[in-house]
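INTERNAL AUDIT FORM
Audit reference: QA-55
Scope: verify that the stored structure record matches its stored sequence.
Auditor: D.O.
Record contents follow.
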Amino acid sequence: MIVPVLEIGGSHLMAAAVRMDGPVPKVVRQRRWPVEPDTTADAFIATMLNAAAWLEVPGGVDWGVAIPGPFDYDAGVGRFEGVGKFEALNGFDVRAAFTAGLPEPPGQVVFLNDADSFGVGECAAGAGRGFRRVIGLTLGTGVGSAFVVDGVPLSEGPGVPPEGEAHFVLWGGAELEETMSRRAIRRAYRERTGQDLDVHEIAALARSAPGVAAEVLERAFRALGEAMAPYARDFDAEAMILGGSIAGSFDLIEAPLRKGLDRDLVLRQALDPEHAPLIGAAVHASAR
């Protein structure tokens, strides 16, 4: 069985066909389109429909769509107000417009948060495979999160932050992203040195010699562990899987993160971060 999926990021739309009938789900075809954060609703839907036409999906087939919040995933309606992206979709019925534009009526069009899609995908075919209770974190411009039990993402329950989103988690009296995010790490390094470097440059310095770069990253990653520790405990997490651009520095993350967590659980870098959201959207759509 093939499930068609779309994955929307801050500046792109990815279309893919995901094969579901093998040992693990697998992306067998994919293509990327640019999407501007200030795009109009009509242009956004046109890109979705161009992607759908490329996939050549017959009528009656269920679709999976991974899209960042704020979004009403059950209704298929954007809630992008005051977030600096996709403002034209605020209050816009994406599901209805997409469905109406397809040449043949689809089955269900199922939406899922992009971080949840990442977590579900890594559990189905990546580093989270074989674990029942997994926390997935995407580290980049912010901290995205997925709390997955038996392949299903949760938005409430013991150990799950409000709406299942780690950016609501507090550390040191402020939101976690004020300490653990691309902008926070860059700011901390700039305040210490006067130099404006990106995270990958700071990481390169941290690998080469002890000093400010290593201290800045140590603090950020340990703060991540300390902030997530009570959630990992109450969620009874077996594994934590890290994706996002900053996860490329996993060699620098693991030790301070483990110190902060102060808990015996498996820490892994995502196995297939590019395909995980696509696979997760397909798994979620096929389970509905």
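Auditor finding: record pair retrieved intact. The chain has a mean pLDDT of 95.
Action required: none
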